[in-house]
């Protein structure tokens, strides 16, 4: 059971928009930055969003992040088949004094 | 460019220990924490702990306290993760990952598969 809660799966058609939610508590998301990763099958995770809404260089602006209270959201617009992957949220948990991950959300681009 | 290169796959018997290495290049090693994250087959990401590459100070996930040891060698820009008293459910891909700041992990090693089987 993950500390951060994500939907197991989401799906949408190419070109459409999708959002992935990540729910936590005051000890984690509520008081710390949220990070998002993309993991394509068989490869290492890749940083997508950090500090709630910042994109590393090379990440297209189709990917966006937001946070409100104890929840965070990853948005992906203009979906492409190459976006099919597992997406994970992550943050620091002050009560656990450690990093916590969401359980992951599998994105299917129909 | 930042690169993290991990040691190769390992097969261990239950009760044994494994030590995975992570060789860093392309940045100032002591300027960033190094984290270790594992992923069991078909499962999600699980944080194991982190090491301050400068001071050597560590934070371990409670689940691994007493079984995991993270060290580093600043002379060769390498980090190590040793897990002892291995069980079959420790079978996983183990990743090292560089901390950008605020726990965001911006560069990852290629992963090391550790298989625990009798």
Structure explained in plain terms:
The complex is a heterodimer of chains A (110) and B (118). Chain A has strands at 9-12, 18-23, 34-39, 46-49, 63-68, 71-76, 85-93, 98-101, 105-109. By secondary structure, chain A is mainly beta. The model of chain A has no long low-confidence stretch (mean pLDDT 97). By secondary structure, chain B is mainly β. Chain B contains no helices and 11 strands. In chain B, the strands form 2 sheets. In chain B, strands 2, 4, 5, 6, 9, 10 and 11 form a 7-stranded mixed beta sheet that branches. A 4-stranded antiparallel beta sheet of chain B has the order 1-3-8-7, with no helix packed on it. In chain B, a hairpin with a 4-residue loop joins strand 7 (68-73) and strand 8. The model of chain B has no long low-confidence stretch (mean pLDDT 97). Chains A and B meet through strand 3, strand 7 and strand 8 of A and strand 5, strand 9 and strand 10 of B.
List keywords for this structure.
heterodimer; A: 110 residues; mainly beta; six-stranded mixed β-sheet; three-stranded antiparallel β-sheet; 0% helix; 45% strand; B: 118 residues; seven-stranded mixed β-sheet; four-stranded antiparallel β-sheet; globular
What class do helices, strands and sheet pairing of chain B give? mainly beta
Beta percentage of chain A is: over 45%
- Main beta sheet of chain A, described? 6 strands, mixed
Structural class of chain A: mainly beta
Number of strands of chain A: 9
What does the average pLDDT of chain A come to?
Answer: 97
